[in-house]
């Protein structure tokens, strides 16, 4: 779905920096410090690029208007995942315990698919997001990168395994190691330690559209990467006690797909920009059983993957978070999940009716070209363009004129 209209915005995205009064050190961080620096990384990106704030504000305004008109619903998951994200895992090591096994990596991929599919079926508000992950098996033609013993995994001996968050030179040097095009792969760099940020950073992801392509991806400490009790192993001793089920990575991937912390902005509206996650004044840690309300009479969402609670307490992405992640994929990461890219990187492609537009905003009257990367012998296309001319099409690509400003849905069925 693409949102159209003529808008002049001078909005700024409010990224509140909340001081958390935490009753325990979460995820191996120093008491009172942040274990996840994804939102801080976004704030730094906003400082580095003065235009980013307006671009993100425009995107948020379009999404809000489309939601107000009831145009946004999650893609169906009845016949399988709506989106498959190819993953490349880069283990940066100095022959220490950070040089984790291929099986531990595979346990983390298994855990991501468990959490994003909501299996074996956790109670409300948990839902199946329709998003799954595949360890890539093929490299770009001519790439200097080589897989380790298992496709989708690289290994590099480097002092960059001692990473310093907040130091641009350290981030550039680390992410240059075995980097693969970020419009084709979700790059994950596994390191020994992440210094900076107050001490004990567990990891950080980059928000979609916020950083140069060469910096896009996730950095994670090895003690936070992997899951116990999977088909790939019962127990990995290196994992943090209390966070040994791979859910810190699910949290970081949530940021990579444009989710904020549930406590983002505290009790102030709009909070985390998701309507069905109750407002939360500050991060929760451990597995709290008392004092569960902070902003309203509704309990804080301690079960949500985007909080800081222990893994045994966290089990949910909500329907609202699912819609937000799917919108971010369609708007920012469409090439990543396209059928052609999945074929190129060696992941199951399925039939993905992904919509791409030449422009996502226009000043009416004007035209937009819509196309889909879904192509193959015998494919048929059924487009619908309410408010546009023509109002329908049956070709892979269609040019549509919109005579007036507004927010209009676009749908495509590929068979």
Alpha carbon gap, first and last residue: 18 Å
Tally of extended strands?
Answer: 16
Secondary-structure element pattern, one letter each: HHEHEEEHEEEEHEEHHHEEEEEE
Task: Indicate the low-confidence ranges by residue numbers.
Answer: 1-23
Q: Please indicate the percent range of residues in DSSP E strands (runs of 2 or more).
A: 15-25%
Mean pLDDT: 88
Share of helix among residues? 10-25%
Gyration radius, in Å = 21 Å
Structural summary, described in words:
The chain has 415 residues and is of the alpha/beta class. The protein is built from 8 helices and 16 strands. The longest helix is centred in the first third of the chain and has 17 residues, at 52-68.
